[in-house]
Amino acid sequence: MNGRSPCIVSIFRDNIDMKTVGLQKSVVEKFNPKGIKHYQFKLELPHGVAIDYFWTQNGVAIDKFMEATGNRDVPQGSNHDAVLILDIDCVPVHERAIEKFFEAAYAGKLIGNAQRSNHLDNGQHLFAASSCAAISLGTFVSIGRPSAFENPPRSDVLEEYTWAAEENGVDVELLMPKRYEGPPLRMEWEPKDGPDHWALKDGMPKYGVGTTFGDDEGDLFYHQFQIFRGKHQEMFWNKCEELLTAGPDIKITGAE
To answer: Which helix (H) or strand (E) holds 41?
Structure first.
């Protein structure tokens, strides 16, 4: 990419079947025409900590990570100027998806799938989700090298990136959910009489298990959500196999 050095990073733990890892790798390869490096790291660390670990390995010290872990001997194994953070249960569904995210990142934006963590009382704050978000190294440093750690009640994983971007005048571009395959399973903290789906701000689209995110031009990314629960891994496998066997104009169906 004209002397640039972007990368895609997917982090997973040992509760993920290696079939999931292999299928994600194959789908990313299919929709990655420029061959951007895709790392898949198995790290037994909480998600936010693992993201901080990547940045530290990429030569950018994260203060909170260093304070929390006391580990200043992280090996320096990469040298990238932009990253697309992609959950192991999230895949592109169109060739322009990855390119769009890096174009936005190199233009100085933070871009990602829209999310709202309804268990946090933080004013219905929308943020670029850890499932799929991209930012350049320069922008990341300019907003203060925020940690991806959860920071309740203000922030879920990676939400501090959006807060920091907003506080520093950096544009945040959020992809909206277009459809989903089903409601998420209830977590322990969710009220039993609450809605059977997740919502963004009042009046905005909803998302759930197997959500397709996109822009006005079409679908871009598919995120399974809660892949470690129920039959969600099998649902993700089926979607990946559908994407791998379909042509470039695949249409993903589901509840609106």
So the answer is: strand 37-42
